[in-house]
Amino acid sequence: MTTGEMERIVLVRHIVGAPTPDDFRVERLPIPELAEGQFLAKNHFVSCDPGTRSRLSPGASYAPPLAPGAPVDGFSVGEVIASRHERFAVGDRVALTGWATHVVSNGRGYAVKLPDLDVPESLWIGLLGVPGMTAWFGLKRVAALKPGERVLVTSAAGPVGATAGQLARLWGASEVVGIAGGAEKCAWLKDIGFTHALDYKAADFETAFAAVAAAGFDVMFDNVGNAMIDRALPHMKLRGRIVVSGQVADYNTPNDLVPGLRNTREFIGQRLRMEGMVVFDDLPGFAAAQAELAELICSGAVQYREEVFDGLASLPDAFCGLFTGASFGRRVVRV
């Protein structure tokens, strides 16, 4: 028998333009009784993901849009506290979805029992969750990165970009160029092994980009959107690959105002390949990749930054800050 109340964040209305905290509300409701085949988890941490934005407007994305009044289903990590499910026992640590203090699950969808790795729990919705796995499989599967290749990473100080850049160097890239916003972020990128770090906010950005782009790029790992891809296309090497991981600059822009790609002739002359990715295509490989990445994190070979907010009610503010340039590192909320 389960008793008590839970809180969750719901979408107030479909969002046009940049999200604001008023687009969300905290809803309190009783914890439901568990049916056979369900379990109840108490969340410890909940994530802020830019990709969540694509489901908060009425247009379809790679996942169906949320309806107004629906709970927001960002990623979470916690512990099973009651169970009527044969595979999930009380005390199991789990990764789930739900901007909520508690989650009732039937074990289907994204419901993963976590292995006993010696890492901070919040990393299961960070480098060992969707951001880290996006970087890992984006380079390995989509880009098929080879030693000696030159790599460009956009939004490079974010959790996906920073992880991708570090993995690229560890896996033999000759140079890794990162683009980020602000001198502090660029200094950190140099500290963690990026060969070049360019500040897109700087007055001399175009000149600096032209200088490092002159040698060309074999791989572009893009988290920003069409304008940045179009800028890089003329500098891609023969048989270069572009990984479309995210579009943080375009999520809040109406479709008819999203910049287009003009330099498409480069695809022909340079035999380029551009491919989007949804990391859950690689779910069967998560466990092995997470174990390897955990070792790299524990050894200090891969570093990360984390911004921790306290309380479920802080989630809307933390999420909206992803689109203002205020974030620096993986944003998580301690429930």
Kindly describe this structure.
- There is one protein chain.
- The protein folds into two domains: 5-125 and 305-334, Alpha-Beta Complex (Quinone Oxidoreductase, Chain A, domain 1); 130-280, Rossmann fold, CATH 3.40.50.
- It has helices at 130-142, 159-170, 183-191, 205-213, 226-232, 265-269, 286-299, 315-320; strands at residues 5-11, 24-30, 39-47, 75-83, 93-97, 102-105, 112-113, 150-153, 175-180, 196-199, 217-222, 236-244, 273-276, 306-310, 330-334.
- It is an alpha/beta fold.
- It contains eight helices and 15 strands.
Class per helix and strand makeup? alpha/beta
Mean pLDDT: 95
Strand tally is 15
Order of helices and strands: EEEEEEEHEHEHEHEHEHEHEHE
CATH arch. level architecture of the largest domain: Alpha-Beta Complex
| Number of helical segments with 4 or more residues | 8
Strand content: 25-35%
CATH fold category name of the largest domain:
Quinone Oxidoreductase, Chain A, domain 1
Which blocks of ≥5 consecutive residues have pLDDT under 50? Answer: none
Give the CATH superfamily of the largest domain.
Medium-chain alcohol dehydrogenases, catalytic domain
**Biggest pleated sheet:** 7 strands, mixed
- The rounded Rg comes to 20 Å
Question: Please, how many domains?
Answer: 2
Helix content: 10-25%
CATH class of the largest domain: Alpha Beta
Distance between the termini: 23 Å
